[in-house]
Amino acid sequence: MTAIHPIVLPKWGLSMEEGTIIAWHAEEGGFISKGADLVDIETPKITNTLEAPLSGVLRRRIAEIGGTYPCGSLIAVLADAGVSDAEINTYISARQASAGITDASEEASDADPQTLDLGGHTLRYLVRGEGEATVLLLHGFGGDLGNWMFVQPKLAEHVRTIALDLPGHGGSDKDLSGIASLSDLADLVLRAMDGMGLANAHVVGHSMGGLIAALMAERQPQRILSLTLVSPAGFGSPVSTSFLDAFVLARKRSEVALAAAQLFSDPTLVSRDMIDALLRYKRLDGAAEALSTLAELLKNTPTAQGLAAIADFSRPVTLVWGAADSIVPLSPAQSLPVIREVIVLDSAAHMAHLEAADAVAAAIQRNIRSAS
């Protein structure tokens, strides 16, 4: 590494502006390996762990436990052992003086989302990273592209990534005209690939998005380079109808909180800001109707539709499941030869890509490599 390397507070997701330091996992003066847990940071939506971006000696922990800092703030410094304390102090002072303790580098930046007009449907998407290969990220029922806030930056270090808001969600339009089945949504996402100039992609889908990804592979298998599916619907277990009903009907803060708590193995991860964001979304024009329509589509989806869709798929498929998932419970039915790997994460429930982002990102990367 270079003699001195700054560690800045990352920007995870479009709405994140600051983070609170919860715990440090490395002591000043100690060596830390690349990829090791460095610091726990609480965001407005959830707590995540920042890993060391490279190996080296942790010379300074600038951010204090309990302190809240803007994204881009210098929170620590890695440096070679031969760098003097005076040089470290000078570097920190210069950074703080020139940037008002914030860093405007690429590490703290976030791309602006874009929109795509498909003639009747407008979809929002976020591109991060560069490379010949592209990973397309599809969220689940009631989610949005921000659900990949921890996974997308990790993948973007190696490949181009695109996180998409499905129709009825996030910044995409809420009009589901012409959508009579999840197969129609799969066709629409394939059209979106056309609109973004994607000849092919590695597709990652969560829950409803996982089933949509499988249906895309059934329709145009030559365009899907690999599938990584996180708690996918249609793979042997029915989606919890009680959750779908609770989420659709929730109007009050307490009702949204109870529904959202079912998604996580640790219900305390459901923050006030997360609940506020869900309430704002549900109050958008057309959002309630879109959710109701999609919930009915999920209820009427054959339990093994996804498995049937990939029965003849020749590219690698990885399934990732949270052991505590009660929304789409882990099913013993995943025995198709096309399924390369089934990963069960003890530390997660339905939102494994938020609760165990490192493990999910690593699974995606392994699956991508196996396809080459």
Task: Please outline what is shown here.
This protein is of the alpha/beta class.
What would you note in describing this structure?
The protein has helices at 85-99, 151-156, 182-195, 208-219, 241-249, 253-261, 272-282, 287-299, 305-309, 352-355, 357-371, and strands at 4-8, 18-24, 31-32, 37-42, 47-51, 56-61, 68-70, 74-79, 114-117, 122-128, 134-138, 160-164, 201-206, 224-230, 317-322, 339-345. It has 372 residues and is of the alpha/beta class. It has 2 domains: 4-108, Beta Barrel (OB fold (Dihydrolipoamide Acetyltransferase, E2P)); 114-371, Rossmann fold (3-Layer(aba) Sandwich), CATH 3.40.50.1820. A hairpin with a 4-residue loop joins strand 9 (114-117) and strand 10 (122-128).
Provide the fold topology.
Layout: E1 4-8, E2 18-24, E3 31-32, E4 37-42, E5 47-51, E6 56-61, E7 68-70, E8 74-79, H1 85-99, E9 114-117, E10 122-128, E11 134-138, H2 151-156, E12 160-164, H3 182-195, E13 201-206, H4 208-219, E14 224-230, H5 241-249, H6 253-261, H7 272-282, H8 287-299, H9 305-309, E15 317-322, E16 339-345, H10 352-355, H11 357-371
Parallel strand pairs: 11-12, 11-13, 13-14, 14-15, 15-16
Antiparallel strand pairs: 1-8, 2-4, 2-7, 3-6, 4-5, 6-8, 9-10, 10-12
Helix pairs in contact: 3-4, 5-6, 5-8, 6-7
Annotation keywords:
single chain, 372 residues, alpha/beta, OB fold (Dihydrolipoamide Acetyltransferase, E2P), Rossmann fold, 2 domains, 8-stranded mixed β-sheet, 4-stranded antiparallel β-sheet
